[in-house]
């Protein structure tokens, strides 16, 4: 894949993000203090004037939208301005959930994911049933992303590719030529983006997590001034549910503004010190372990439910899986000057990327993966990238949600790389020890994160404001940490390490596979999270929710979804 559209598609796939779903068309109530509450017009964001007051406009038929005016640089409150787009599912009048609880802000993760699209796609279906109908559920587009102004956009720029090994999974890796090409592409892409979005008045320097935390504080302050905000005594505190990278935003906010923490849940917990180091990305070592569970689930499901079923054991299914990769030895093909060496390399990248993504949402993705793997096998005798791509698209759908926007490559790179300036300018030789370490963590994911480091080596735009710790503190209210026992991107050890750093924080452990509680869809966990947001009461120390039905409707032994050290 060489054009920028495909590059953006590929890099968007590596973002640590939550699963997408299609929201239900359920009516909501426009906030009573909106200045256009009687309007039947459905406003678009480019029609909504930015304001330092939180003024809501009807949008997307079931939502309300606003554009909050904030300083582009929070250290210069009288300087250039920026506009933060917000979207809301308004609390329902006379909700059976009880009295009005105020605003709950949410972030879907990434970095690089637009919050507006998240609420459009998952708000009614996923968030509302867990949070309750007596909250205003609000999401926002982070700086430079989605519909924010200024927008990070260098979409005319060059291209890239992506994608390595552990937990018993093995197979061919990519050639040194791949890395040489990646470094060249990174330098070109970074230079071109710097020219379009790197100035002090552009989005590039203002996409950091610290800026997002300050923006969230501005949102809370604006809400507290509204008539609706004055209905709740705790309106000056931030109620928040952050997923994946959104947990890092939460950790940053709680560390910077501990006295403003309300009912605060971070879900799929990022290690903040690892994140800001850039080169110590050790959160991926369970990626292959999660994929390994596919073999067990497929075996338990049997041939009638799992199309990739074979033999008499999960090991037989694993061997069948690994045999797909054997002909895709890109290094050997390049060394032998095979005419289809490039096709082999691109196919290997594509298959790894597609398989990797299923680890984030196994319940919904494993049945699709079984069909895709059968299709991959069929392509090997007459290998083409087009055939591999077609097999990867089997069973997948793109949410048909009016108003969503395509994700741009630079949203992820700008937010992530801008916070790790120490990587910029590093050569392949300088980064190779880190690349090797990351690759050893996961056969499927190592190359993807290693490629991210390479992209950062060519990214010259540095965040103007970067919070690097300390993380932790005496928060106004205790934080709820939420982790699955087998999460491919944010292992439970992160919660175990960081919850003690925040006063009286507690951990909710879900015996499940997948990334964040959304992937687990565990009824016990959903009930505990609901009670937390409704009452502020934590579920209790060492709170744990037992394994429930997983992929293919199978409920496995606990050992399948729990790390050996956690049994």
Describe the structure.
The chain is an alpha/beta fold and 567 residues long. The chain has a domain at 286-392. The chain has 18 helices and 12 strands. It is globular and about 70 Å long. The two termini are 43 Å apart. 56% of the residues are buried.
Provide key terms for this protein.
single chain; 567 residues; alpha/beta; 12 strands; 39% helix; disordered N terminus; hydrolase; Serine_prot/Carboxylest_S33
Principal-axis shape: globular
Instruction: Record the strand order, biggest sheet.
Output: 2-3-4-7-5-8-9-10-11-12
* Poorly predicted parts: 1-30, 157-172
Over the alpha carbons, how many angstroms does the gyration radius reach?
Answer: 23 Å
- Ends distance: 43 Å
Largest sheet properties? 10 strands, mixed
Count of DSSP strands: 12
Run of helices and strands: HEEEEEEHEHHEHEHHHHHHHHHHEHEHHE
Mean pLDDT: 86
Beta-strand portion reads 5-15%
Q: How many helices?
A: 18
Classification by helices and strands: alpha/beta
Give the assembly state of these chains.
single chain
* Overall helicity: 25-40%
